[in-house]
Amino acid sequence: MRLKFQILFIICTSIISSVAFAQGDYLNKGMNGVEVIGGYINNDFSSGYGIQIGISLNGVVDIGFAATSFNIDSEYDFIDFKAKSYVTFVMFHFVKQNKYKIPLTSSLIVGYNSTNTTESSDFEYGNKSYKEGRFAIGLGLTRNEKLSPKITLQPRCEIMIYPHIESYDLVTGDGRTDYSKIVLNPEFNLGLFLIIGTDRNRNPILRIGPALQFSKGTTTYSINAGFIVPFGGSHSSNDADDDW
Questions:
Q1: How many helices (H) and strands (E) does the chain have?
Q2: What are the b/e assignments for 135-154, b being 16+ CB within 10 Å?
Q3: What's the rounded Cα separation, in Å, for the pair 140 and 211?
């Protein structure tokens, strides 16, 4: 049961990358960009490293892929657990922060996580593997606060759910009955990032900061750093209205 919980938690934890990743919530509307970012994740029973890459189109749609490798703590010294997680997600920034009217960028997030966990043992039965996949959907809110022309502070929060159906066999006085219910597995993510650079000159932009995830009574910490590289695109003809 403990391993099953850990596998499920890693599925949820891996999409914490979306907090660290959404470059479209920084780029102004009309700008394109590519982001590459790496991170370290740690909680009470696992730790791991990951890398993410993605593209932002017009500063409105982000498409990303993340790969993370985890070590899972075992209750037994003779058993070793490792997990690899692969996440594909799309973000749609349906409301963009601008200078006068809108204080926050609002984002819809849809993702899919595939996780493969391997159990290695010193005993004869050798290795076992467990595979699991889940869809996720969520909402993100971001604020870009300029500290100077080339330095921005970016707080971001997300609420995510991982809806799936859990099935059980119940034994009652009338016999065995199949029972199922819809489980949402909600989580809450927070990130605070320092961004150095600007998309106006199309030079690489540094993005670095910590993130927290709260899910199933466990807090997960991460630190992330990477670069956004703007390309193509253009700013709106009305910069005062569209830029933040």
A1: 3, 13
A2: ebebebbbbbeeeeeeebeb
A3: 14
Beta bridge partners of 189: 158, 213
pTM above 0.90, yes or no: no
Alpha carbons 193 and 136: distance in angstroms, whole number = 23
Q: What burial letters (b/e) apply to 166-188, b meaning 16+ CB within 10 Å?
A: eeeeeeeeeeeeeeeeeeebebe
Give every CB contact of residue 157 below 8 A, 6+ residues apart in sequence: 140, 141, 188, 189, 190, 191
CA 205, 86, 74, 44 dihedral sign is positive
**Domain boundaries of the chain, sorted by first residue:** 2-242
What is the tens place of the pLDDT at every residue in 57-106?
A: 998 999 989 888 888 776 655 567 788 888 888 999 999 998 778 899 99
Using the structure block, give the residue that is written with the tokens 């695109």: 233
Euclidean distance between CA atoms 23 and 37, whole angstroms:
10
Cβ neighbours around 38 below 10 Å, total: 13
> Which helix (H) or strand (E) covers residue 19, if one does?
helix 17-21
Q: What's the CATH architecture for 2-242?
A: Beta Barrel (2.40)
Separation CA 194–CA 146 (nearest Å):
10
Q: What is the pLDDT of residue 20?
A: 56
What is the amino acid identity at position 184? Answer: L
